[in-house]
Amino acid sequence: MSDGASEGPSGDAVALRADGIEQAFGDVEVLSGVDLTVERGEVAAVVGPNGSGKSTLLRVLAGLDGAAGGDVAVPSGAGGARRVGFLPQQPAFREGFTARDTLEFYASLLPGVGSNAVAATLGRVGLADVGDRAVGSLSGGMTRLLGLGQAVLGDPAVLLLDEPGSGLDPAMVERLFAVVGDLAAEGTGVVVASHELPAVEAHADTVYVLDDGGFVASGAPATLLDETDTASLSEAFLRLVRAEAGESTVRAGAGGGGSESGDAEETEVRDDE
Ligand SMILES: Nc1ncnc2c1ncn2[C@@H]1O[C@H](COP(=O)(O)OP(=O)(O)OP(=O)(O)O)[C@@H](O)[C@H]1O
């Protein structure tokens, strides 16, 4: 959490800064100028209706997709063997590998990360007992936990998690957010896209509500509850995205007239030195 964060050698407490992120798929404008700054030690949650652009934003932040506009910077001075760890919404691994082999493979790509870290990571994400099981035989929730393990391996300065709690039982959702909290306490800046609003309310420092191409609200969970005069983040969410419980909130895009996807420039994740 923010209070436990120490500053990097440069004195910069910022883990990730995104300015003016724009993204469109054909005529579907998804992000129209999103700004986000995450400090080291901060857990920032991005919530929003289905189709509002959470995965799109995280993929741009991770540097996997070029955006139509904007800039992402990950300042130096934090993290271990790598700058950014990313858990995609649908993690996929080689089915024949065991869970341990899978993490060993990712560890081999990271300088200074060895078998001890792999064993510790399996335990951390709750997979110690199934480490020797083939990936193809893991349950959906276990596969997601393996994805979390892959994302946290090497103590990244920035951790981006897309729906990490999806498919997990309630105890594992709590464990997952506890792991996230531990990493934040060690100085990692975390961005988590999630529909698990009770867990977000309990564990996030800052909540960003994404709708209509941008953040329609942001603040500490308690602040959002105060501002909306509601008793839970779930209620606040419905108020902020102007919906009733049970109503369809699926978003088809932020508006017409977006640029063609072929116009998208490569948005590099800069390593600010
Ligand atoms: N590669 C793509 N090509 C075309 N359209 C896309 C692509 N990826 C996403 N979209 C569209 O962009 C919009 C945002 O999708 P995105 O997956 O980012 O939403 P989300 O907020 O993560 O949704 P959910 O909560 O359902 O996971 C949707 O309208 C989606 O159909």
Bound molecules: adenosine-5'-triphosphate
The rough form would be described as: globular
- Topology order in helix (H) and strand (E) letters: EEEHEEHHHEHEHEEHHE
How many domains? The number is 2
Using only CA atoms, what is the Rg? 18 Å
Supply the CATH class of the largest domain: Alpha Beta
**Secondary structural class:** alpha/beta
CATH superfamily of the largest domain: P-loop containing nucleotide triphosphate hydrolases
Largest sheet: 6 strands, mixed
How many beta-strand runs? 10
Description:
With 273 residues, the protein is an alpha/beta fold. Helix content is 29%, strand content 24%. It folds into 2 domains: 2-79 and 158-263, P-loop containing nucleotide triphosphate hydrolases (Rossmann fold, 3-Layer(aba) Sandwich), CATH 3.40.50.300; 92-156, no CATH class. It is built from 8 helices and 10 strands. The strands form 2 sheets. A 6-stranded mixed beta sheet has the order 5-6-7-3-8-9, with helices on both faces. A 4-stranded mixed beta sheet has the order 2-1-4-10, with helices on one face. Strand 1 (14-25) and strand 2 (28-39) form a beta hairpin. Helix 2 crosses helix 3 (115-124), helix 3 (115-124) packs across helix 4 and helix 7 (221-228) packs across helix 8. The longest helix is centred in the middle third of the chain and has 16 residues, at 170-185. Residues 1-6 and 256-267 have low confidence and may be disordered. Adenosine-5'-triphosphate (ATP) is lined by residues 25, 28, 30, 48, 50-56, 252-253.
